[in-house]
């Protein structure tokens, strides 16, 4: 590693550390506002909140790392241009490609780290975070649930709670295509909804087949409506591959899963693309003695986040191909990088 490499990496790491800290705090702040704030007002245990936020840190690092690297490179190269360091390097016979190459291979290291983090660690941590909230809700159902809440049990059947009062929950209904369960009272215990004194009606071709009363029924729960929505990105790479394969065999559309699968590769790869983009725009602006400034750096960084969100949503809804929903932002910034590098060469 040359002196130039060490200098560039040292300066980039300084900006990257600060940018990543800000990105992580902003992303966790969004989680706190959207997910935890409603639960805080209803008295969820502080320990559960702290555990949930801790489990969401890996995702914040994973999402924030490419954004922080783009922010760091734009700040670094803008500062080097304003201090005439880039001009000094060119005057000394060091080509711009040499400077960009150092930033690209370091971006590759970040991309590899991000891929490993996003393939297994982030999904597992998010699944544990959901389990923490589910336990907190089941421990205090009267405080955290409202009349009209829907659950999904372990068999995919819809469970409805019509009343929440001082005695617990009531007017519980289980709804599926083949059966309906109705009970006046129910209670939660360790992830299981216990029903007492109810009626069960089964159907065959939309007609009642059997009607029976029961003294006690147990429904293992899978999803609770008070929890944040489960996303395809919360699955590991292997789980996404298996789900896509099963959906394809059954002929079921799966744009959300396919988009999440491509994003597992595209999001970490953005660090490499950003090195090309930041280098291209820096040397292009250097030729005209222009400077981005802090406002320009923040605008470009935010533009990536906005395009990432738009492409993701369109890909998950099937409006564009899944691969484009995943790699679209990378391709856009790569095209801009090649444009700036080409114009700068002339």
Q: SS-based structural class?
A: alpha+beta
Helix-strand sequence: HHHHHEEEEEEHHHH
Separation of termini? 30 Å
Percent range for β-strand residues: 15-25%
Number of strands: 6
Number of helices: 9
The gross shape turns out to be elongated
The helix fraction, in percent, is 55-70%
Description:
The protein has 346 residues and is α+β, with helices and mostly antiparallel strands. The chain has two domains: 3-139 and 231-345, no CATH class; 146-224. The protein contains nine helices and six strands; from the N terminus they run H-H-H-H-H-E-E-E-E-E-E-H-H-H-H. It has a six-stranded antiparallel barrel with strand order 1-2-3-4-5-6. A hairpin with a 4-residue loop joins strand 1 (149-153) and strand 2. The longest helix is centred in the middle third of the chain and has 44 residues, at 96-139. The two termini are 30 Å apart.
Layout of helices and strands:
Elements lengths: L2 H39 L4 H37 L2 H7 L4 H44 L1 H4 L4 E5 L4 E8 L2 E8 L3 E11 L2 E13 L2 E18 L12 H14 L4 H33 L5 H24 L5 H24 L1
Antiparallel strand pairs: 1-2, 1-6, 2-3, 3-4, 4-5, 5-6
Helix pairs in contact: 1-2, 1-4, 2-4, 2-7, 2-8, 4-7, 6-7, 7-9, 8-9
Based on the model shown, name its key terms.
346 residues; alpha+beta; 2 domains; six-stranded antiparallel barrel; 6 strands; elongated
Structure summarized in a few sentences:
The chain has 346 residues and is α+β, with helices and mostly antiparallel strands. It has helices spanning 3-41, 46-82, 85-91, 96-139, 141-144, 237-250, 255-287, 293-316, 322-345; strands at residues 149-153, 158-165, 168-175, 179-189, 192-204, 207-224. Helices cover 65% and strands 18% of the residues.
């Amino acid at each position: 590693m040359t002196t130039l490499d060490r200098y560039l990496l040292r300066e980039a790491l300084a900006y990257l550390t600060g940018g990543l800290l800000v990105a992580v705090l902003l992303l966790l702040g969004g989680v706190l506002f959207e997910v935890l704030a409603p639960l805080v007002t209803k008295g969820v245990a502080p320990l559960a909140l702290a555990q949930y936020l801790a489990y969401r840190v890996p995702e914040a690092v994973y999402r924030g790392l490419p954004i922080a690297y783009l922010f760091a490179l734009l700040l670094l190269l803008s500062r080097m241009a304003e201090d005439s360091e880039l001009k000094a390097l060119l005057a000394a016979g060091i080509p711009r490609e040499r400077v960009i190459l150092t930033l690209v291979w370091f971006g590759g290291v970040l991309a590899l780290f991000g891929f490993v983090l996003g393939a297994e660690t982030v999904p597992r941590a998010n699944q544990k975070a959901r389990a923490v909230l589910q336990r907190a809700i089941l421990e205090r159902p009267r405080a955290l649930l409202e009349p009209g809440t829907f659950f999904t049990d372990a068999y995919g059947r819809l469970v409805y709670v019509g009343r929440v009062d001082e005695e617990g929950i009531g007017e519980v209904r289980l709804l599926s295509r083949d059966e309906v369960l109705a009970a006046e009272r129910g209670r939660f215990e360790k992830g299981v909804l216990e029903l007492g004194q109810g009626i069960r009606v089964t159907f065959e071709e939309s007609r009642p087949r059997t009607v029976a009363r029961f003294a006690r029924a147990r429904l293992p729960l899978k999803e609770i409506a008070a929890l944040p929505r489960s996303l395809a990105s919360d699955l590991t790479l292997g789980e996404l591959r298996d789900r896509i394969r099963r959906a394809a065999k059954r002929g079921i559309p799966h744009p959300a899963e396919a988009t999440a699968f491509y994003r597992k590769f595209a999001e970490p790869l953005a660090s490499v693309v950003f090195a090309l983009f930041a280098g291209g725009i820096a040397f292009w602006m250097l030729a005209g003695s222009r400077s981005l400034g802090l406002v320009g750096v923040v605008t470009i960084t935010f533009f990536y986040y906005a395009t990432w969100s738009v492409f993701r949503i369109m890909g998950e809804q099937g409006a564009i191909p899944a691969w484009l929903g995943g790699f679209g932002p990378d391709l856009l910034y790569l095209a801009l990088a090649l444009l700036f590098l080409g114009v700068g060469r002339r």
